[in-house]
């Protein structure tokens, strides 16, 4: 739809989705399925679908969750591996976009830089940077599926003497595609999911030796990449029916283990340590390199598919060093202990730089609103901010589980607005609700981003549960009219589908 404003032509849609990664493609599917009379467009800053899975190109890129839960609820995962490589995941997202006609809704090379909500007109005006210059669009509802980290920058500590290093040095987020590994010594700085992925892959690609240098240990657990039981069930029941059963099983197992870790941390620590003792050589210093000071699930556990990291250690191709960087020297890294780690290549797997809603500027009736520090509603909207939602997945389970629920709730909300012939939905802030940190996680990248992230409340619906069962109850089956969400505005032009509205509410 094209509208005119002050003599200038501007695009207008009912719902504008920002981002064409896992979250954005999933949101578009839900809007097509449950709000079919609303026009939808997606704007994507880059030139490709896939978000993370298209951006990252480092060796061994893979999921750190099983694909039955990281994949969509509406599209069965049919790959043989439950822990899949990045290329296979990217192909899956593209297949979904093509199968359901979502690709034609995407406007590539459109970066959101600002959005202003007009309360009188009940619409957002968004400013987009495009290859052809600045452009504006309007929409009734704005949904952000942009993830939570900066694609253009990563977290790179200012290591002393970095310019002195004679070899190649870069952050894993910006992997050089022409890197030669054969016969070279590699040091990977970090011990999170990225490092755990890269290290064994580099060893298998011909590096002379790979060292994982960590300041402190991370909890790790081995898991087979192929789910044999799931594959048997798929052959027996077919992909779609089996997908639902396997997804439910995996959700229950994830939540059960997480609750065990939170309620009985000492027991869980012993359980994880026992698993490592089975994987590593008998004389290995497990308590030096794999015994964190924090409790399990204070940070995300690192998944080691098919024990590849542990096999590299056992085979002598991989070493783990627990120490601090003193400085870079021409030959490699001088550690605080005085030891020299020789290297031809140094890879910084030192974490992400978090940003909120793509760092876009938001305003209401011309008055800027800073959403960092704002209180989140149901983990997908902000108190006092109308017609704006976002996807933010779980830190203790698969991202898409929460993203799917958020998209479903968005459709319920839009259909209720249409049924009542209203145009604005806004959660009313409650001064009695106490603000607490957005995430109860001690991971460095989240601690660094405290000022950037929103906050949650100490009670529902402002509380961020990190619990699929509670979110399922609230977002899929809970009341839309909950005494907090306020509705106003003039009548919509398009009524909802009565059948879909009844089915969703």
Automatic annotation (TrEMBL):
Keywords: FAD, Flavoprotein, Monooxygenase, Oxidoreductase. Gene3D superfamilies: FAD/NAD(P)-binding domain (3.50.50.60). The keyword Cytoplasm does not apply. It comes from the Bacteria. InterPro entries: FAD-binding_MO (IPR051820), FAD/NAD-bd_sf (IPR036188), Flavin_mOase-like (IPR020946). The keyword Transmembrane helix does not apply. SUPFAM superfamilies: FAD/NAD(P)-binding domain (SSF51905). Its cofactor is FAD. Belongs to the FAD-binding monooxygenase family. This is NAD(P)/FAD-dependent oxidoreductase. It comes from Sphingomonas glaciei.
């Amino acid at each position: 739809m094209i509208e005119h404003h002050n003599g200038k032509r501007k695009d207008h849609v009912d719902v504008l989705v920002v981002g064409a990664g896992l979250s954005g493609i999933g949101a578009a599917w839900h809007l097509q399925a449950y709000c079919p009379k609303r026009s939808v467009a997606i704007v994507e800053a880059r030139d490709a679908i896939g978000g993370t899975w298209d951006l990252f190109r480092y060796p061994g890129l893979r999921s750190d969750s099983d694909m039955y839960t990281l994949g969509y609820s509406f599209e069965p995962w049919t790959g043989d591996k439950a822990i899949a490589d990045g290329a296979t995941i990217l192909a899956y997202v593209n297949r979904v976009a093509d199968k359901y006609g979502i690709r034609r809704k995407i406007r590539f090379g459109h970066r959101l830089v600002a959005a202003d909500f007009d309360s009188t007109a009940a619409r957002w005006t968004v400013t987009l940077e495009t290859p052809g210059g600045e452009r504006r669009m309007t929409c009734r509802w704005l949904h952000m599926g942009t993830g939570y980290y900066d694609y253009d920058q990563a977290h790179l500590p200012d290591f002393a003497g970095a310019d002195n290093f004679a070899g190649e040095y870069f952050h894993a987020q910006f992997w050089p595609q022409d890197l030669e590994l054969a016969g070279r010594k590699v040091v990977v700085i970090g011990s999170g999911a990225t490092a755990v992925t890269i290290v064994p892959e580099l060893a298998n690609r011909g590096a002379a030796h790979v060292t994982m240098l960590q300041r402190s240990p991370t909890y790790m657990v081995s898991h087979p990449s192929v789910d044999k039981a799931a594959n048997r069930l798929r052959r027996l029941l077919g992909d779609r029916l089996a997908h639902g059963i396997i997804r439910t099983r995996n959700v229950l197992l994830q939540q059960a283990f997480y609750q065990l870790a939170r309620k009985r941390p000492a027991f869980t620590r012993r359980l994880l340590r026992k698993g490592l003792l089975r994987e590593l050589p008998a004389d290995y210093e497990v308590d030096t390199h794999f015994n964190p000071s924090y409790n399990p699930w204070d940070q995300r556990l690192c998944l080691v598919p098919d024990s590849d990291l542990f096999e590299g250690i056992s085979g002598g191709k991989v070493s783990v060093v627990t120490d601090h960087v003193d400085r870079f020297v021409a030959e490699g890294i001088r550690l605080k202990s005085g030891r020299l780690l020789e290297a031809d290549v140094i890879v910084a797997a030192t974490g992400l730089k978090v940003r909120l809603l793509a760092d876009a500027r938001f305003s209401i009736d011309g008055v800027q609103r800073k959403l960092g520090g704002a209180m989140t509603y149901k983990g997908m909207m902000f108190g006092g901010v109308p017609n704006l939602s976002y996807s933010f997945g779980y830190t203790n389970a698969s991202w898409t589980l929460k993203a799917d629920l958020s998209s479903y709730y968005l459709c319920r909300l839009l259909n209720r607005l249409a049924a009542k012939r209203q145009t604005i939905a806004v959660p009313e802030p409650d001064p009695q609700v106490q603000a607490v940190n957005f995430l109860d996680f001690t991971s460095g990248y989240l601690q660094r981003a405290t000022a950037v992230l929103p906050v949650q409340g100490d009670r529902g619906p402002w509380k961020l549960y990190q619990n699929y069962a509670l979110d399922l109850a609230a977002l899929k089956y809970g009341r839309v009219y909950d005494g907090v969400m306020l509705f106003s505005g003039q009548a919509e032009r398009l009524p909802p589908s009565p059948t879909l509205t009844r089915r969703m509410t």
